[in-house]
TrEMBL record:
Entry GO CC: plasma membrane
Source organism superkingdom: Bacteria
InterPro entries listed in its UniProt record: ABC/ECF_trnsptr_transmembrane, ECF_transporter_component
Pfam families: CbiQ (PF02361)
Secretion signal span: none
Subcellular location: Membrane
Annotated TM spans: 47-68, 75-98, 110-130, 151-168, 195-216
Entry protein name: Cobalt/nickel transport system permease protein
UniProt membrane topology term: Multi-pass membrane protein
Primary location group: membrane
Length: 218
């Protein structure tokens, strides 16, 4: 089951605000997250490792709050709040690329300059990520093993330098390509559907979640 880009962005933002401003988390607050993850269960393995890595940072932050603030409730709240928001965001955005994000913001009638800038930012981050993975693969082929020595630091510095050079080259190539296509500050979407049938299920779950959060739990 796939959601439209506009519905994914809107639901993720609304749910994030609902959870972020709560002073306490109850089991009712996880209804929307559980429902969305059940609908998009096939996407969870793809992001499980990334979420686990990000959780290491959140565990460190929560531990810092607990150690220095002696506030275990606040530390647990940070950890649960983060995981609810990240899991919903990953499930809603699963399979979306830069073009899908642009279609989503275009459907939501956001300013054209904002949507175009966001499109190129997301697209360029994706390009830089691909270049970085290529260079990492070349280092692995050469049996490079990082250590705490001068050679490792020099190699990593070369890696960052080459990433910067390639990024500038790709940026110039992208600029020339857009000029050749007559780009005038706007992108015109085509062959896309603004909403999918699955959006009805997501909207119903979100309304039910808001009712539980601000109705039943009060």
């Amino acid at each position: 089951m796939r959601f439209s880009p506009a519905a994914g962005i809107l639901c993720a933002v609304i749910y994030s605000f609902v959870i972020a401003f709560k002073q306490s988390i109850t089991p009712f607050d996880a209804v929307f997250a559980a429902g969305i993850m059940a609908l998009r269960w096939n996407c969870l393995p793809k992001y499980a490792l990334r979420i686990a890595k990000l959780n290491l940072m959140i565990i460190f932050i929560s531990a810092t709050v607990y150690i220095f603030g002696q506030d275990s409730a606040h530390a647990i709240l940070i950890f649960i709040r983060y995981n609810l928001i990240v899991c919903v965001t990953a499930a809603m955005f699963c399979g979306m690329n830069a073009t899908d994000f642009y279609y989503g913001f275009y459907t939501l009638k956001l300013p054209h300059k904002f949507t175009v800038l966001l499109f190129f930012a997301v697209k360029y981050i994706e390009i830089i990520g691909n270049e970085y993975e290529k260079m990492r693969t070349s280092l692995r082929i050469r049996n490079f093993k990082p250590r705490t020595d001068r050679f490792t630091y020099r190699t990593l510095a070369y890696l960052l330098g080459m990433l910067l050079v390639r990024s500038m080259d790709r940026a110039n190539a992208l600029t020339e390509a857009m000029k050749m296509r007559g780009f005038a500050g706007r992108l015109y979407p085509f062959n896309f559907r603004p909403f999918f049938p699955a959006d009805v299920a997501a909207a119903a779950l979100l309304v039910f979640q808001i009712f539980l959060t601000y109705g039943v739990t009060r």
